[in-house]
Amino acid sequence: MLNPFPELLAFGLGSYFLVPAILRITIATVFVYLALTHFKNKRVVASEFTMLSHEMAIWAVGVAILAEFAVAALLFVGAFTQIVAIVALVGCIKALILKKKFSSLYPLSALAYTLVGVIALSLLFTGAGAFAFDLPL
Predict the structure, then answer these.
(1) In this predicted structure, what is the pLDDT of residue 15?
(2) 95-105 b/e with 16+ CB inside 10 Å = b?
(3) By CB neighbour count within 10 A (0-12 exposed, 13-18 middle, 19+ buried), where does 114 fall?
(4) Which tens digit of pLDDT belongs to each residue from 4-29?
(5) Alpha helices in the chain (DSSP H)
(6) Do 63 and 49 meet the contact criterion of CB atoms below 8 Å apart?
(7) Residue 60 in contact with residue 76, Cβ under 8 Å?
(8) In the Cβ-directed half-sphere of 132, how many Cα atoms lie within 13 Å?
(9) How does DSSP classify residue 102?
(10) DSSP per residue, 18-55
(11) Which of 137, 107, 83, 135 is nearest to 35 (CA)?
């Protein structure tokens, strides 16, 4: 069957430049959502850390929020994309393992964390794509 839009595939424009950029911005949006959700529910999330004192738990949640915002910002601008993709992939694996125990810390479904992990794995192999500060592969 013929491709209905062959000009979109010319010179590999979509697969090498635009698709990784779209995936990068999508995963950055997910991390902004997670950071904002944790910021709004900081006390509830901190209450799940029973092994820490209340002040230390709030501090730990604050560090997690800053880390999520940092990952989102770096992915959005395309800086250190492959390193941040590894961090996001490890975070998604951690979320899949600990989701049942810390439900307010990991508010997304297991399927959502799996999809974010697959996107991070894709960014690890393809690089940042178009409109990024990373050097091309």
Answers:
(1) 60
(2) beeebeeeeeb
(3) middle
(4) 766 666 655 556 678 888 999 999 99
(5) 13, 19-40, 42-47, 54-77, 81-98, 110-126
(6) no
(7) no
(8) 29
(9) -
(10) IHHHHHHHHHHHHHHHHHHHHHHTHHHHHHT-TTS-HH
(11) 107
